[in-house]
Amino acid sequence: MTAELVRGQNHPLPHTRLEIRVSAGHPVVAAATLGDDRGRIAGAEAVAHPGAAALPGIEVPRQAAVRHRLAVDLEAIRDTVHRVSVLLALPVGAGGPTRFGASAAPVVTVTAPDGTAVADYTITGLDRESAVVALELYRRQGAWKVRAVGQGYEGGLAELLADQGLDRPAELAGTVLEAAAQELARAVAAPPPDLPETDRVRRAAPAPAAAPPSPPPPPAGGPIDYSHPGRRPAPETAPPTPQGAAPAAAPAPVAGDASGWSMDERLYNQVWGMFEDLARTTAAYRSACQFAESRLDQELDRVLSDPRSRIGGAGDAARAAAKAKHDELTARAQEALDRDLAHLTAESEVVEPALPAAYARWDSPVWQAYRVPMEAPLAVRLGDLHLPERTGLRIPFLARLPLARGLWVDSGRGHSEAASLLDAAELRRLALDTAVAHAVRLLAVHPVNRFRVQVIDAAGAGATAFAPLVEAGVLQAPPAAGAAGVSAVLNGLTERVDLLQMAARAGALDDLPPGLDAAEQLLIVHDFPHGFDDRAVTQLRYLADEGPAVGTHLLMVADREDAAAYGPVLDPLWRSLTRLTPVPDDHLADPWVGHAWTYEPPVFPAGSGVLRQVLAQVAEARGQWGADHS
Fold this sequence. Notes:
Shape: globular
Number of strands: 21
Distance between the termini: 73 Å
Helix content: 25-40%
Low-confidence stretches: 193-238
Strand content: 15-25%
């Protein structure tokens, strides 16, 4: 039976391997401190937070989210630790509330390894606090208990850490919140909440925002169950397999095997289901391997701690048994991973050829029959994602339309191995080609005259890459050059955003000026910050923050180092954009367990004429539309 705790109440913990689940009405940052018997922490190394997510015995999420799962193994906690405090803090610069009292009370649940709730605590009574100690796990007479704390701090995370005895608490608090902000900026946006849960999660349990705990220890006399939690078990009513007969084969995957009103929506939901399945099955495999390594280390430590078993046959036998158990556990984990990857690979081979143009790769045959659509699609493909466990299994990176965030094609080297092998000029060329590919796709998937593209190329360095767009006549105006061109474009778009925002707030969208173009706008900015003065930079930040809500989007092609002179002033700009790269790079994270996924940009097939073919279709449709409405 679940214990419903109130502030100050404690409850015994029947397990040493636990999961702590957090549910809040808005994104929060989760962290944990490892303290002594008085609750004092020795230093920053005793704090698990998004920038240092794993400590012995505990792992916390790497980004702010509405839901979290923290993995706890009390047996792995050091003997000097007597108190594990779970902390929640409001992220900075996320556009959310600045105090806990402005939203629903957070709920913290301690669960057993099988998901059974042990204790619940709803943190009520918070008002102006922006950080809180939710609960603590503590040792008492050799056993562990949980206590509901609910102690809030108006001074935020810095005041909380200072209360636990940390030196320079403001410094660590800033590090924690900055790490959470950076992780949030690199995370792939989850499907929006207007989709039902069954649309987003076809075969998996409710999605956590952090890595799941290691697999539970085996029950007495029973094996560890490494089966993927999202796979549907066979129905209980299924007839048993006759003795000696081969088990029934899994049903063949089918394109569109997800809920939705249209085939496009079903395929979108299916791709997201594959994305989540791959994230979760990989998390289960990695967690199982970590558990096997941890178990091996513990058993070897026990052998070495006993003087009688350090030498001789008994010690060798114990070490061999520990290694054999480790190998057995990792082999079973690999078997489960291989089974799930085989299913996902088969599904991908069926789904990929069925994808419509908006979701398809540039080498898909669907582009040979391309025609300008009558309505905008649900999403658009921005590239591919894969994990190192199966690099050949690529998941389409689909972003919902209209875009909630602008795009940034990073022309700098970053930390990518592929980028380090290229010279700066080639990397910049690839970045601009990638941006053009994104722009062409966005033009191609929108109905005629429902999507406009403008270009700022202050130095004129992108003339070759932009030539197909210019020659096809699909740009709203020739690329703007020089400081005057930059100023003119930004002034026009800023005024447009202002008008639309005022009209929306006043409920007067029907009263907009007759000449105002209602089509969505995409602004491609090349070679930033060349040609930008302080006013232009401020306008660009404004468009990045306010533009998406009224159909004005940015596509930046820039190296962050080129704008280093602006310092932290531009940090909010970079964080507000979805960072993409012109070469493979593992900078994106999934919204469920936070894996680092390798992103691969869209590439036109070598020697293919698909780029000019698609632009010709868009130009022809625009010309026909103009003739029909003249």
